[in-house]
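Subject: for your reference before the review

Hello V.,

The reviewers asked for a structural picture of the protein, and I figured it would be easier to keep everything in one thread rather than splitting it across files. Below is the amino acid sequence we used in the manuscript, unchanged from the supplementary table.
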Amino acid sequence: MVKEFKLPDVGEGLTEADIVAWHVKPGDLVEDGQIIVEIETAKAVVELPCPWDGTVARLLAEEGQTVEVGVPIIAVEVGTSDSAERAEVAAPASAESASDDEAGAHSVLVGYGVKASSTTRRARRTAAGRPETAEVPTAPEEPVEPPEVPAEPAARSQSKPTLAKPPVRKLAKDLGISLAALAGSGPDGSITRDDVQRAAGAGTPARSAESGNGSRTATSAPASGGEERIAVRGVRKHMAAAMVSSAFTAPHVTEFLQVDVTETMAALRRIRELPEFAELRVSPLLFVARALLVAVARHPLVNSSWDAAAEEIVVKHYVNLGIAVAAERGLIVPNVKRADALTLPELARALQVLTETGRAGKATPADLAGGTITITNVGVFGVDAGTPILTPGETAILAFGQVKDTPWVVDGELAVRKACTLSLSFDHRIVDGELGSAVLRDIGSMLTDPLRILAWG
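And here is what came back from the structure prediction:
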């Protein structure tokens, strides 16, 4: 019996996704919970597990193709003797009864480059909190022609899949480079960014992929002096639409404040020496985040949203702190849930995990949903200030510029101090100039004298 797996809605009402990379091919044995494909939605790259044990009959969508939710993307033959034998082999056995020879036989049978570690399949939940199991229609029970296994390039082993991280796959797709034709220089033969860029510079033939509507999604490496076209889809498409909507919906106002952060930098050095922060990479962003959280507690209206339909301002008495991350797929804003309830070490750990997963392209739709206020750290790019655009649905965003040596008057004397510029953009429908100035002034005061964070928090 052949069952077709339809593209599910992995986010909040998402309507489509791009196929980034298949981890299986026709003829491969798969098991329930095994990751079979990576997709890119408007918010994140998501790994999808197979819901059955069986054999891959056909791949119904190509890498680079945009597929609507509910459209079948893979056909799996289930209930065959091969899959039954696989299920029997995969069944747990006690250490006392399993011999080394049997373990070797199992590894050969399971094989096909599947990692030994298991992947848990998380059930979707309904509004009532109950697990929901999607019913997948099956094709009529009729003989199925043997699947056609596409010929693999000589540089790729038929039993070993191409290893590359999602950002590397995306880069290869944008440059029109076939990963299958490359020899990886990374761990376990994985393909790195350098491998892809080296291939692009050497003029490696590009692999063209046709999308469902016949449009080409990968182009040849651009010639010197020519033009290059990059398809706008996935996260970048969502980001562009969100920024346009925000800029032309909420009336933006941006205020600036230059701050002496010498004492904050001194406190940062002392905190790094504490055992609670021993394994963390603590940056000035931690103090900026804590100062913003304290300012929100003092001025709750800045942590709100505008409900046009109900003609209401919705004040959030919790803070899901968003951090703008420049990932390879585009700008994303994952957020730390209930950041206001975290201790300083917990906040430091959460910020580190958030930025690492975001830059690696591993942020989930849940990580990106529900933010209430945002920080964008433009200082890491060597920029002093900017006029950030509000994250849709939020009222304020704080830009933190680079910290640098600056001439400063201290007690009537000119001195060299560590200083930075803070930029606060806010929705002028909710926040007027007085409130916006008070929030920005409070944040600046706490960064000038970090003891105020304790006094006011």
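For the response letter, the relevant points are probably these. The first strand starts at residue 2 and ends at 6. Residues 81-159, 204-221 have pLDDT under 50 and may be disordered.

Happy to draft the paragraph if you're swamped.

O.
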